[in-house]
Amino acid sequence: MSSIELRQVTKRFGDTLIVDSIDLTIEDGSFTVLLGPSGCGKTTTLNMISGLEEVSSGEILFDGKEVQDVPPHKRDVAMVFQSYALYPNRSVRENISFALKLRKLPAADIAERVAEVAEMLDIAKLLDRKPRQLSGGQQQRVALARAIVRRPNVFLLDEPLSNLDAKLRADMRISLRELQRQLGGTFVYVTHDQGEAMSMADQVVVMNGGVVQQEAPPLDLYRRPANRFVAGFVGTPGMNFVPGSLDGGGSFAHGDWTVPIGWPGAARDDVTLGVRPEDVTLEPAGPGAPGRVRLIERLGVEAIVVASFPSGDVISRADPDIELDADTPVAMRIRPGKAHLFDGEAGDALA
Ligand code: ATP
Questions:
Q1: DSSP-derived pairing of the beta strands 211-216 and 303-309
Q2: Which terminus of the chain, N or C, has less C-beta within 10 A?
Q3: Is 228 in the pocket of ligand 1 (CB under 6 A)?
Q4: How does strand 303-309 pair with strand 16-26?
Q5: Is the pLDDT assigned to residue 109 strictly greater than 90?
Q6: What's this model's pTM, rounded to 2 decimal places?
């Protein structure tokens, strides 16, 4: 097994700073997800860990040993990509066993290892087919099998499920977690899909603009986002944000509209209130109420209610049978202790 550490790792392409002095510790045997919007530097970071990209500066350590100058094939890592990158003219069996043949393992050992991973990934019946005779999900399983069969200490996965449909993606999330438990290796997984990150990770590293925004287990990230970016990126529907001020008496104000949030801090201007849709209730109120219902989506398990307020739209998750109609005047209530506050300028969470 392998722990991975990044110390002040920086990557420039020409004059452009892509990854900016990242410090990161990835625990041995953990499932760590690098999460962030397109272009934030996740893939570049993963490629520096594998050795496919050189670092511009900084150190990468595997089990405490520097590897930034070690070529990829000597780092004992396996990569799985979004595009499966299978050899089209070789059978599934040949695709999986190729790396072992290069290592000149005895034929009997190769056959045994291929059979073992094929069983694990439920592709034993496909071993004699060519990649073009497989569905996308099956091809991705073959790509995983090819990585696993080498028994590396570190698995690096770059959006491996993006080409699969929603149902297969959900199944593969479960398979991947089970696989990791079985194999016990260190998994580093890149995605822009927060649902994928939340469902699979032990530890999520949120990146934006080449900088790590927060590193935390999924629920901590959800409950205690370090800043506005993380708060807005994690969770669907996203957190509601309202700019305004604190009156020092436990209420938040946007213009002359106030809402009690029980915040114990002193009065100050220039803050942003953040509240998750499940922590907002929209209640019918008199015609002078600040909000108006715009839209109700009844989704079976819940209803999503969108109301317009002087500060902008507010989204609430509600009971699927909630008695509200479009245009009903509503007031907003926030569940006690559930308001988040961010510095209006820097966006950092206020304690
Ligand atoms: P995505 O989810 O879209 O793949 P990402 O977070 O993985 O995004 P990267 O692929 O790491 O982002 O790319 C980060 C930035 O670096 C992008 O703006 C990209 O255009 C740029 N970039 C990546 N590789 C190179 C390269 N070889 N030369 C120049 N710029 C590059």
A1: unpaired
A2: C
A3: no
A4: unpaired
A5: yes
A6: 0.91
Are 176 and 211 within one domain? yes
Interval between CA 44 and ligand 1 midpoint (Å): 6
| 349 in a structural domain | no
Cβ–ligand 1 contact at 192 (below 6 Å):
yes
ipTM confidence score: 0.93
Q: CATH no. for residue 267?
A: 2.40.50.140
The distance from CA 216 to its chain's CA centroid, rounded to whole angstroms, is 11
For ligand 1, the distance from its centroid to the CA atom of residue 309, given in whole angstroms, is 39
Q: Whose CA is nearest to atom 9 of ligand 1?
A: 41
* Same-domain status, 214 and 310: no
Among candidate residues 233, 258, 283, the one where a domain is terminated: 233
In one-letter notation, the amino acid at residue 339 is: A
One domain for residues 105 and 178 = yes
Q: How many CA atoms lie within 13 A of 140 on its CB side?
A: 22
DSSP class per residue in 54-67: --SEEEEEETTEE-
Is residue 251 located within the same domain as residue 196? no
**Ligand 1 atom index nearest CA of 43:** 7
The CATH number assigned to the domain holding 27 equals 3.40.50.300
**Same domain for 137 and 272:** no
Strands in 251-254's sheet, in edge-to-edge order, are: 257-260, 251-254, 240-246, 268-275, 340-343
Q: What tens digit of pLDDT does each residue of 197-252 get?
A: 999 999 999 999 999 999 999 999 999 999 999 999 999 999 999 999 999 988 99
Distance of CA 32 to the CA centre of its chain: 9
For residue 255, give the H/E element and its range.
Answer: none
C-alpha span between 144 and 165 (Å, rounded): 17
Separation between Cα atoms, residue 324 and residue 123, nearest integer Å: 51
- Quote the domain boundaries for residue 266: 240-343
